[in-house]
Amino acid sequence: MEKYLAGMSFAVLFFVIAYDLGAWSRFVEPDNPFNSVELVSWVTAAATAVLALLTLFLAKATANMARATSEPQVVASIEVNQWSVIHFDLVVENTGNATAFDVQVKFQKQPVLSEKKSDRPFPFTRVSLLRPGQILTSYLAGFENLEGMKYPVTVSWKRHPNRVARESVSYIIDMNSAEGVSFLGRGSALVQIADEIKKMRNDWKPIASGNRRLDVDTYTQVDRDAKEAELEAWREEVMRKRESGNQ
After folding, report:
1. Choice between 159 and 207, residue whose per-residue pLDDT is larger
2. Which residues touch 88 (CB under 8 Å, ≥6 apart)?
């Protein structure tokens, strides 16, 4: 609708400018009643009305854009665990720019949890609030429990805690897209750092507890004196060679 109004307004303004420049007189007879100031008034009024409507549409579109940029948007996904490529986490994230309240995540058919979590309730079925950019992660299961499955999920939330109306989004999580996922090394630099620190801790633990001895190569004052004597002898040898060469 806005495109048509914009085209009409430009067409009307074009005719007004053409009339002011005298181009209209080439197509209209001198005694034609439309070739008058009244025609310009009507055309100008029409152009003003169209521009007014366009202004209203623009104001409405601007308000909608401002509201859209300050709304919450919550999504749930099943993603590869950063520590193991064969294990998966349930991730709930607020990708919008406002806080989401009373978040509910409903799977039409819930994924089968790992044996260690089988006696626990399904995670994140209800979250009181999610700040903009906040991410909640919970270990779900191994890939053997999820392989080839499709999970219809509905995520809903409120813009305000006292508001009755809820906003929601529904989609399907297809686990076939996770087949063939692999890492070259560790998934992230933080995981690599954590692994290296863990190795250092494991290497140092028996030493700290006294179960392993350290082979220490010390450098004492005697070693320093011997090194200094070596250097002094080398200097004297160089000086003798230089003096004998000058003679």
Report:
1. 159
2. 78, 79, 80, 81, 140, 141, 142, 143, 146, 178
CA distance 90 to 94: 14
- Identify the residue with better confidence: 30 or 230: 230
Render the burial of 173-198: b for 16+ CB within 10 Å, e for the rest.
bebeebeeeeeeeeeeeeeeeeeeee
Distance CA 5, CA 3 (A): 5
Q: Tokens 């998966």 — which residue?
A: 88
Which helix H or strand E contains 217, and what residues bound it?
Answer: none
Cβ-proximal residues to 185 (8 Å cutoff; 6+ apart), any chain: 192
Strand partners, 154: 106, 170
In tens, the pLDDT along 100-135 reads 999 999 999 888 888 777 678 888 999 999 999 999
Query: What pTM does this model have?
Result: 0.54
Find out if CATH 2.30.31 is the number for domain 74-178: no
Could you tell me the CA-to-CA distances from 70 to 65, 127, 132, 164 in Å, in that order?
A: 9, 20, 10, 19
Contact 95, 77 (CB under 8 A): no
Q: Which residue has the higher pLDDT, 117 or 230?
A: 230
Locate the domains of the chain by residue range: 2-68, 74-178
